[in-house]
Amino acid sequence: MNPIHISSTFDAGAIDVVSVADPQDIQLNIRRDNASDFAQWFYFCLHGAAGQPVRLNFMNAGQSAYPKGWAGYRVACSEDHQNWFRLDTDFDGEVMSVAFTPASNRVYLAYFEPYSHERHLDLIGSAGASEHVTLERLGSTLDGRDVTLLQITDAASTTPQAQKKKVWLIARQHPGETMAEWFVEGFLERLLDESDPVARVLLDQCVFYVVPNMNPDGAVRGNLRTNAAGANLNREWAAPSQETSPEVYAVRQKMLEVGVDLSLDAHGDEGMPYNFVVGTEGTPGWGPRRQALEEAFKTAWLAASPDFQTTHGYPRGGREEANMTLATNWIGQLFDCLAFTIEMPFKDNADLPDLQVGWNGERAKRLGASVLQPVLAVLAQLRS
Ligand SMILES: [Zn+2]
């Protein structure tokens, strides 16, 4: 019999192995981000356990960044590194456990279906082949990777350039939220589909600025929430620095240069089993205009996709002061524009659950494609 072994030295791999001596008590610790205390993301390969019942115990789950994320959580698992399904877990408040019998001697487990750096490069490559796309390297990450922007419009359109709405979509400020880049992939596939009437109108009347991965270093390092320097990029927008948050610095500079009429920032939420958005209520410039835009956008998205909902979400900010270091608040305030943080679940959409796969890459892609409809619905009202 093969000895049981766990490896994680690959793109986005992350786990600390405590003990593999007893197949019924494989002890693991969820690894922290490389330069911060956030710990939630894991991704590893279990070898040598084909046909053998195993129990994996994540010993420190109760001390992770979002312990509430383990209630009702199901692990993403793949036997072929292509198709991911879910496994039930137990969580006693401290240890999160998964018991199953692998079919093969090489089975992958991850917090969520991964989105690899190679796929990220392929996405940019295939989108960049379109005549509508201009690629721009905005800057370097701390590890020397590229911060890549896709500028997308129909250059032959009759709409004067100055009248075109500037629509931004950024994703993976929090690198472990891989569903965010799956969302971008679905968005781009539809936007570049020459047969799609919504995409054709949008390309005629908008310039899209898309950053598929704001945090490639954190993604490759297997971090949940921070970049190589331990910076939580979605707390850096008020004052980004070249030293610790060059990714935000570069994207922010480009926004200041070209402007923003609509901003979408894609994320994942550990606890809530729903897709929802968070707007800019609570920012100083919040008022009836932005509120009406938000409502119109949400209404149109509800009509476009049953995977989107507005019943469940974060508690409303009301008159509380918004955190102006968040991308959405900073952008919405500075450009007085419609801006949303999009949250997708790590678990599943409880309104439309899929017991086999949970929320996954393919479903995030469909949601990303569906968001073109609400963009179209509010297009004429985006500028005051
Ligand atoms: Zn996030």
From TrEMBL:
Database matches in SMART domains: Zn_pept
Keywords attached to this entry: Carboxypeptidase, Hydrolase, Protease
One GO BP: proteolysis
Source species, domain of life: Bacteria
InterPro entries xrefs: Cytosolic_carboxypeptidase, Pepdidase_M14_N, Peptidase_M14
Swiss-Prot/TrEMBL cofactor(s): Zn(2+)
The keyword Hydrolase appears for this protein: yes
Domain (Peptidase M14): residue spans on this chain: 107-382
A GO MF label: metallocarboxypeptidase activity
Active-site residues (renumbered): 343
Keyword Hydrolase attached: yes
Protein family according to the UniProt entry: Belongs to the peptidase M14 family.
Protein name: Zinc carboxypeptidase family protein
